Amino acid sequence: MMIETSLVTRENETRSNSLKRDYEALGERLDRQGIAIDTIKGKVAAYGVAVPSWGVGTGGTRFARFPGKGEPRNIFDKLEDCAVIQQLTRATPSVSLHIPWDKADPSDLKAKAGALGLGFDAMNSNTFQDQDGQALSYKFGSLSHTDAATRRQAIEHNLECIELGRAIGSRALTIWVGDGSNFPGQSHFTRQFEHYLDSARTIYAQLPDDWRLFTEHKMYEPAFYSTVVQDWGTNYLIAKELGDRAYCLVDLGHHAPNVNIEMIVARLVQFGKLGGFHFNDSKYGDDDLDTGSIDPYRLFLVFNELVDAETRRAPGFDPAHMLDQSHNVTDPIESLMVSAMEVQRAYAQALLVDRKALEGFQQDNDALMATTTLKTAFRTDVEPILAMARLESGGAIDPVAAYRASGYRNKVADIRPEVSGAGGGIV
Ligand SMILES: [Mn+2]
């Protein structure tokens, strides 16, 4: 354990009596609605969201990056920080690696993760920046580049990610490219997308039988005029072209403001192509803010669709869940803990929706009562359920308070020097 269990126990002791009373009161209230609180707690306890390895480093913008204290120096430090998040929240059992940032000997990775009680989620390839000693540049694209040799290099990198992933027990590859253009006329839309599809087909052909391939759309940036995989429509076309093991990944921040993301989720579920999520939040665009920090109702509406699909056992429904956000002004460990709990909260609230009543209101075109049904669930303070699930699985009732009391950040700051360079957390 990264943090002494005796400290967590002491912290919990100061809060357990209040929690017990709050849990009983909520349980009594839910019971009147015909909901068994222990069933909801069990589902919440079984729920996990993956932490991105790059998330534990301090992020930045294209203007500046202000390093934090005791930032992880390498993947092994990152895994330790991820283990703190899992120890206190019990909501983040796996880590998603980013290659080449996290490249290391697979047996060392497995040993370290195993010792910390962590597993590996999807592998993420990186063809949006050039690495030291790289033969060909991605300045003008990678999988969709006009030059066949550059495309080949990007394909080889993705195959290398699969190979490393196999060795450490991962079961999915996520491809996100920064390919696009900055000027009208700069790129031929059709030829560029055809290049992308050809490259993606080559990668897909090498995908192990028990693996899934996720492609992630993003409206803009780093390309500012056009992006090759710009929206869920293009993403769906890719998944459809590639085959049964290709799915669409939805990053909540990668859409235009006000886009109805929950409806996109419903469409992808309906056609068996929802691969998973990158959770975050945004005010104007992109994925820079913490999950649930701006619009928790939208997060709830997304989970409402997920629980609906789970409840009616939608065919092929098995989305991967991961956080993907940039922490520029907070301690990344604290942000990731809070965000993991926000995701769990949205899930718990969505589990409270009276689906039978909702279906009736929808059938009768009772718009007011239908939307009130959702609001009733959303307004329920489910914190006692989340906290009790954490307590019973060895976590902290209040993870941020326990983390601060542990002095973990200061301890690692003594052995990890501050670095101002780029690296994790920027994207
Ligand atoms: Mn993402």
How many domains make up the coordinates?
A: 1
Name the shape in a single word.
Answer: globular
Q: Taking Cα atoms only, what radius of gyration do you get, to the nearest Å?
A: 22 Å
Q: Give the end-to-end Cα distance, rounded to a whole number of Å.
A: 30 Å
Q: How helix-rich are the residues, as a percent range?
A: 40-55%
What is the CATH fold-level name?
TIM Barrel
Q: Count of DSSP helices?
A: 16
Fraction in beta strands:
5-15%
CATH architecture: Alpha-Beta Barrel
GO molecular function: isomerase activity
Keywords: Isomerase, Manganese, Metal-binding
Protein name: L-rhamnose catabolism isomerase
InterPro entries: L-rhamnose_isomerase, L_rhamnose_iso, Xyl_isomerase-like_sf
Verbal overview:
- By secondary structure, the protein is α/β, with parallel strands linked by helices.
- It has one domain (5-415): Alpha-Beta Barrel (TIM Barrel).
- It is built from 16 helices and eleven strands.
- The chain has helices at 5-13, 16-32, 37-46, 75-89, 106-116, 148-168, 189-205, 232-242, 261-270, 296-311, 332-351, 355-363, 367-379, 383-392, 399-406, 408-415; strands at 51-52, 94-96, 119-120, 123-124, 172-175, 180-181, 212-216, 226-227, 246-251, 274-279, 320-323.
- The strands form three sheets. The chain has a six-stranded parallel sheet with strand order 4-5-7-9-10-11. A three-stranded parallel sheet has the order 1-2-3, with helices on one face.
- α2 crosses α14, α5 crosses α6 (148-168) and α10 packs across α11 (332-351).
- The longest helix has 21 residues, at 148-168.
- The protein is globular, with a radius of gyration of 22 Å.
- The relative contact order is 0.16.
- The model has no long low-confidence stretch (mean pLDDT 96).
- The structure holds manganese (II) ion.
- Manganese (II) ion binds next to loops.
